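User:
Hi there, any thoughts?
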Amino acid sequence: MSARPLRRVSALVGGVLLAVVALTGCTPAVSLEAAADATDPGCAEVIVRLPDTVADQPKRETDAQATGAWGSPASVLLRCGVADTGPTTLPCVDVNGIDWVRDDSDAPNYRFTTFGRTPTTEVIVNGDAVSGTTALVDLTNAVQVVPQTAKCTDISDSFSG
């Protein structure tokens, strides 16, 4: 076997690798800011369980610790380690056993923040692109790894008839 065919194969393999590197570089990482408590070990537990798709949107690379993004353009954003919401008058919804405080003040972008789980996770959903409920259902397995220490209550729960 002569050296000439091996050089051709080597050049071809090198060209394919260069093409693969070039193609993977086409979609830039989603730029996010890490939350204050992003280094909490519980966030690592959440992040390693993030699904490849959320609301039928493919996962994207991010440039900040304890974050996730899906869609192009990104329509679902996740940050772990955000500040706890504490008591609030915002609505609280239970999705698959996880309490989420819903903030629709920036609609059609909806902010969902876990309640009663530390570290706290925040998910921002572009409601024009995906269903918030579907996104939260798809993120259940990742978020439920953080133990729940409190449940949402309604003010009417505090009064007895």
In short: The chain has one domain: 41-155. The longest strand covers residues 98-106.
